[in-house]
Design a protein that fits this description.
With about 190 residues, the chain is an all-alpha fold. The chain is built from 10 helices and no strands. The chain has a single domain (about 40-180), classed as Tetracycline Repressor, domain 2. The longest helix is centred in the middle third of the chain and has 27 residues, at about 105-130. The radius of gyration is 18 Å and the shape is elongated. The N and C termini lie far apart (about 45 Å).
Length: about 190
């Protein structure tokens, strides 16, 4: 799995082949086909657990009695931590490969990813209703903007660079929260 993740991260899912994965593992393609039938099977195996974990963790965060601002910050910190631990997940998100995946496993991944976005939108909506966040934008639009900002980090972030990913994550979290702050100038 780690080899498939490395290939998908380096080449992108669309450009990767099972031959690339076999080469990375150091086996021939026929041997790889004995264990896995398609590139999609590998992707599903890589993504199912992390997306389910992210969704479950967001459910726990959303159920807390904290402010919406604190819930959103905590959810985004978890998101960044997942980026650190599972960068291949964000290749999936940025390439929209979920749109070309098929089968019940792929549907479960799509469903969990969609549910995650809706739950994050609910946290933002709760913050709008409580006066913690501006109310002149749709929560779904805010989610798209926030996740879009985070989902492209893997394209430019250099893990061997001087700053850890969590530094950028903290900055992006503050930017997202600042963008949602209510203002007397903004009205719905």
């Amino acid at each position: 799995m780690a080899s498939a993740a490395a290939v998908f991260a380096r080449l992108g899912y669309a450009q990767s082949t099972l031959e690339d994965v076999a080469t990375e593992v150091g086996i021939n393609r026929a041997t790889l086909y004995y264990y896995v039938g398609t590139k999609e099977e590998l992707l599903v195996a890589l993504l199912d657990q992390p997306i389910d974990t992210m969704r479950s963790r967001l459910e726990e965060i959303a159920a807390q009695p904290d402010s919406a601002r604190d819930k959103l910050a905590q959810a985004l910190r978890e998101y960044v931590q997942t980026m650190v631990e599972k960068p291949e997940l964000f290749i999936f998100l940025s390439e929209n490969v979920h749109k070309v995946m098929s089968g019940p496993e792929a549907e479960r991944i799509r469903s969990n990813a969609d549910r995650y976005g809706r739950m994050l939108g609910q946290v933002i909506d709760d913050g709008m209703r409580a006066g913690e966040f501006r109310d002149d934008i749709e929560p779904a639009t805010a989610v798209l903007g926030i996740l879009g900002m985070f989902n492209w980090i893997h394209r430019w972030y250099d893990p061997s660079g001087p700053r850890p990913l969590t530094d950028f994550g903290d900055t992006f979290i503050e930017m997202a929260l600042s963008a949602l702050e209510p203002s007397k100038r903004r009205k719905r």
